[in-house]
Design goal:
Elements lengths: L1 H9 L9 E4 L33 E5 L6 E4 L8 E4 L6 E5 L2 E2 L7 E3 L6 E4 L3 E8 L4 E4 L2 E9 L3 E4 L2 E8 L2 E4 L2 E3 L2 E3 L3 E4 L2 E2 L3 E3 L3 E4 L2 E2 L3 E4 L2 E8 L3 E4 L3 E10 L3 E3 L4 E4 L4 E9 L7 E3 L4 E9 L3 E4 L2 E4 L3 E3 L4 E4 L2 E3 L2 E3 L2 E4 L2 E14 L4 E14 L2 E2 L3 E10 L2 E2 L3 E3 L3 E4 L4 E15 L4 E14 L3
Parallel strand pairs: 1-2, 2-4, 3-5, 4-7, 5-8, 6-9, 7-9, 8-10, 9-11, 10-12, 11-13, 12-14, 13-15, 13-16, 14-17, 15-18, 16-19, 17-20, 18-21, 19-22, 20-23, 21-23, 22-24, 23-25, 24-26, 25-27, 25-28, 26-28, 27-29, 28-30, 29-31, 30-32, 30-33, 31-34, 32-35, 33-36, 34-37, 35-38, 36-38, 37-38, ...
Length: 447
């Protein structure tokens, strides 16, 4: 027995240190063309006791025997199944397999070009996908851990496990567990119930991720739903490729990028951008990003579509906000902002805001910094501090209690301009409909 165990260990056979190994269709088998797993004559014949259906027994699948295998009686409880590096493709089905021992219990070392398809329901301690081949599981399976280091694992049934991936993983059904990926590719076309952590590689999800997603230095393409907090960090690029619904926070940091290009991204609670990238956040024309509140603390936020908030958007000192689409919910600006689209209420409190020709602002309060208008401010405007210049149109009243308002050639204010402690200058070809100068400086060279 010691000699057999040593040889099995040399071949890298799972669970073999304390198990008798049997090779499907191996030397000594007498009926290698049949499909019955439970027929002892289909197995190589070391000491008697084949087939490997009990604890302390291990099955090896190589290039021999029928490529179709059926477990006709069970459940069976071997220590392990191992597909060797020279294994042929197999299709296995039948009764349940409840592996014994610490594992790894199911090991696929088969080479590129081979596909191992297993339809049995299985349980065990550990699954290892280590060959360049494909392992396709279609049953109901439960392993404490699943390791993918080469090739590809496909879950087409139900898998309960925590998956560690550095190669290829496709979830087409339900993964009750988490995904931890350091490299490679994960495609989720089903449901992952316990979150996703990425530190490299690519991740695509089209149905559902539950309990959050964290991406650092990875590439994410997403549609469907992601519940729980979303973190996009390092050099990650997160692209919304279709309608995506969230229910918690989204945080962008490092030099990470979020691109809303293929569908709307809705349901976010608090959206925080700390990424210093010049492409930190972008919303394409025809697309919507919605959140309870948005804080743009660094980098550049570019909106060509629609951004909607309940509690408003803040653009911090050092950050840049560029709007050519529609911003609903208002903007509190201490950084650099420009508008050539439609922006709701604007609080400019130390930043620089440029409302370009064609741009529309609903309402303005300037408490610091500069506001330059060549577009339209529709509603009432107030200047408490800082400097406001106008070559466009203010469509309602203007109140100046501090700072300055300069109406240049071509500029107009349709309502009453009230100056009570600030400075108002109306240059040649500027138009003020009416002026009430309570206190402060007023210079008029226009109309």
């Amino acid at each position: 027995m010691a000699i057999v165990a040593a040889a099995a260990a040399t071949l890298g056979i799972a669970g073999s240190a304390q198990a008798q190994t049997y090779t499907w269709g191996g030397t000594g088998s007498t009926t290698p063309t049949t499909t019955d797993y439970n027929l002892g004559a289909n197995w190589s014949n070391p000491p008697a006791a084949a087939p490997p259906v009990n604890a302390a027994q291990a099955a090896v699948f190589d290039a021999t025997g029928n490529a179709t295998v059926s477990v006709t009686a069970g459940p069976i409880t071997p220590n392990s199944w191992t597909f060797t590096g020279t294994s042929q493709s197999y299709t296995i089905s039948g009764r349940a397999v409840n592996f014994n021992g610490a594992g790894p219990n199911l090991v696929n070392n088969a080479s590129a070009g081979q596909t191992i398809t297993i339809g049995n329901n299985m349980t065990g301690a550990a699954l290892s996908q280590a060959g360049a081949s494909i392992l396709d599981l279609t049953g109901t399976n439960s392993f404490t851990t699943t390791s993918i280091t080469s090739g590809s694992l496909i879950n087409g049934g139900s898998l309960t496990s925590n998956v560690s991936n550095s190669a290829g993983f496709t979830n087409n059904a339900t993964l009750t567990g988490s995904v931890n990926q350091t490299a490679g590719l994960t495609v989720n076309a089903g449901t992952i119930t316990n979150g996703v952590t990425l530190t490299g590689g690519w991740f695509t999800t089209t149905i559902a991720v539950q309990n959050g997603l964290s991406s650092t230095n990875a590439t994410v393409n997403a549609l469907g739903t992601i519940s729980g907090a979303i973190v996009n960090a390092g050099t990650s690029v997160f692209t919304v490729i279709g309608a995506l619904s969230a229910n918690s926070t989204f945080t962008n940091s490092g030099t990470a990028q979020l691109a809303v290009t293929g569908g709307d991204f809705t349901g976010i609670t608090t959206f925080t951008n700390n990424s210093t990238s010049a492409n930190a956040v972008s919303v394409s024309a025809g697309r919507t990003l919605s959140a309870t509140s948005i804080a743009n603390n660094a980098g550049t936020f570019t909106n060509s579509g629609t951004v909607t908030t309940l509690l408003g958007t803040t653009n911090a000192a050092g950050a840049t906000y560029i709007n050519t689409g529609t911003l609903n919910g208002g903007l509190n600006n201490a950084g650099t902002a420009s508008n050539a689209g439609t922006t709701g209420d604007v609080w400019n409190n130390g930043g620089t805001f440029t409302n370009n020709t064609g741009g529309t602002v609903n309402w303005l309060l300037n408490t610091g910094g500069t506001f330059s208008n060549s577009g339209t401010v529709l509603g009432p405007a107030s200047v408490a501090n800082g400097a406001v210049t106008n070559t466009g149109a203010f469509g309602s009243t203007l109140s100046v209690t501090g700072g300055s308002f300069t109406n240049n050639s071509g500029g107009s204010v349709a309502g009453v301009t009230t100056n009570n402690g600030g400075s108002v200058t109306n240059y040649d070809r500027g138009t003020l409909a009416a002026v009430n100068n309570v206190s402060g400086a007023f210079v008029n060279a226009g109309t």
